[in-house]
Design goal:
Helices cover about 30% and strands about 30% of the residues. By secondary structure, the chain is of the alpha+beta class. Helix 2 links the parallel strand 1 and strand 2.
Length: about 140
Amino acid sequence: MTASLTTARLEIWDAIDNASTLSGVFKQRLKYDVPGSVRQQEEPPFGELPAIAIRPLLITPDRPYNNMFRLPYRMLIRVWTAHWVLQDIEALAEDVVKAINSDTKTKRRNPEFQIAIGPTNLKGADGQPGPLVMRADIQVTVETC
């Protein structure tokens, strides 16, 4: 049996992968399903942008959820683009949110979103700051039980 947390994460991926507005957009998808892959590749190389990643978000819950065994799962969806057009990264982030909100499986999980967008440096090969890119961090919380 698959854990409800895993099912919720995979449903988010399915919603993004099946959205017509996002078809063919991302050159790389960081799914972190292979042991150790989160440590090995925390961000995509510059030549593989635009890219998207989804990973669990380690934070303290802001409210308790024990009244009917509701188990919220908070994830970070991170999107990178190589070009510096703010409207493009805003539209891409909105398309990701719309894909999750319009999917039947993820919609029933009552997703809640917070978005932060801005420039960031990718890591260079030598550990120094690499190319400057745009990044959207989309925090999504879904119910799993």
